[in-house]
């Protein structure tokens, strides 16, 4: 690429916003031209407005940028990465799409619209083409593309090869979700220290339908969700990053753990996604040790973009069970959005 594409980050000071800044540092295709956040931060240099919590240092170019308000008049960029709370995203994201920007969002505000993809280039890149219908229907010259919620991420990637090979009927999941998934400052330390909180508002509902849309198909300009069932219980645990999910499955055609492991290990991303800068390779890592994956040891596998599976074994009630881990603020949020934007560039959809 001879010239880098100008991009902006909305919600740049938060948990996901900081990941965007870190992952966009030296990105081969994108150059950050604007950072936006709330009125509390607008007008301040990024280093003053943001309490940086990542272990990688804040890039020098970001430290000096002055935060602006998230409006198309103040932010001129071809791609707009949104890490806004859902309530704010509802009005702000369409304003950018109308003004011609490709909005790559982490918020849930538009995920359930049939013409808005929850995009995973390594499993269903073809769903990106729904944005052509989205533009036509809504009269936008830009678009909105979303990520899933961060618990559905590793789950959906691991389910894809199993669905293709054996068919899925029922999926039961129990999550153990990191504290960074609640944003910054998130859950109070007095609530989470030495504790597990068995409730995350709205999360179970999202995990029960988002993977079905991610693994769905494009029919007459809309995404039709896949027709298996998911039942979810979600928990917040005392871990900084990395969401772990225990999965029990009923398949359409019986499979042994060895067959499932082979299918997971051999899984390859579709051609459209293979060479993108954020593509994980391999997409799925299957660990053989009886006590892996673990968030602290395995969340950064494949620069935080890989899906790590372990403990694949028979289930005495259903067919199979396993554990899956994914980095919630990288593959589950900012890294996933970059991957989605890269696919749009490659498919000439900007
Ligand atoms: N954390 C995760 O693992 C994760 C994963 C997937 C998806 N998501 C989704 O990603 C989004 C961001 O999550 P987060 O965890 O990064 O949240 P967060 O840490 O609370 O950050 C929120 C960001 O939005 C800005 N903001 C708040 N109110 C605003 C307003 N009225 N106008 C403009 N900007 C405003 C904040 O700016 P100020 O600093 O100025 O207040 C901050 O930059 C949410 O929709 C979340 O559901 C999060």
Main attributes of the structure:
six-stranded mixed β-sheet, 2 domains, 12 helices, Rossmann fold, 350 residues, binds NADP nicotinamide-adenine-dinucleotide phosphate, single chain, five-stranded parallel β-sheet, Dihydrodipicolinate Reductase, domain 2, globular, alpha/beta
Structure, described:
- The chain has 350 residues and is of the alpha/beta class.
- It has two domains: 5-148 and 333-346, Rossmann fold; 151-327, Dihydrodipicolinate Reductase, domain 2, CATH 3.30.360.
- 31% of the residues lie in helices and 22% in strands.
- The protein contains twelve helices and 15 strands.
- It has a six-stranded mixed sheet. A five-stranded parallel sheet has the order 2-1-3-4-5, sandwiched between helices.
- A hairpin with a 2-residue loop joins strand 8 and strand 9 (222-224).
- Helix 1 (15-24) crosses helix 12 and helix 6 packs across helix 8 (203-214).
- Bound molecules: NADP nicotinamide-adenine-dinucleotide phosphate (NAP).
- NADP nicotinamide-adenine-dinucleotide phosphate binds next to helix 1, helix 4 and helix 12.
Which helices and strands, and how do they pair?
Blueprint: E1 5-10, H1 15-24, E2 30-36, H2 46-49, H3 60-64, E3 79-82, H4 86-98, E4 102-105, H5 130-138, E5 143-146, H6 150-166, E6 168-176, H7 189-192, E7 196-197, H8 203-214, E8 217-219, E9 222-224, E10 229-233, E11 236-237, E12 243-251, H9 257-265, H10 271-274, E13 284-286, H11 295-298, E14 307-314, E15 320-326, H12 330-346
Parallel strand pairs: 1-2, 1-3, 3-4, 4-5, 6-10, 13-14
Antiparallel strand pairs: 6-12, 7-11, 8-9, 12-15, 14-15
Helix pairs in contact: 1-12, 6-8
The structure holds NADP nicotinamide-adenine-dinucleotide phosphate.
